[in-house]
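Many introductory courses stop at the sequence. We go one step further.
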Amino acid sequence: MVAGCAPIPRMTDQPSARREKQSERRRKTAKYAEGYSWETRASFYADKFHGRQTANGETYDMNGISVAHKTLSFGTMLEVENLNNHRKVIVRVNDRGPFVRGRDIDLSLGAAKQLGMVQDGVVDVRITIMKLGE
């Protein structure tokens, strides 16, 4: 009968999988702030995804200027510089990806053309956060 006095664990006391995932995402993005800059590899995506819905609900336009990032908030504005030729482009995060080790962003074909990286496919870039999305 003594066990009857112990509090019964409620389901609401346990963190939900969704809350855990959101918390993990916050930890991953905590290092990012406006003005933060880092160097990484970038690729681009085009035909296969053209006209499909992006993670934020927009229709992907491969000729537009946009970028996919794994964790940055949608609407975040990034300056991306191709370190091979020093060309730059300002892009807005509207999708998730790339899901390839060693790459932080996937640019639209339009952005890749502005950076002069289409022939190379994957290039070294410097990314600077211009404005964080909401």
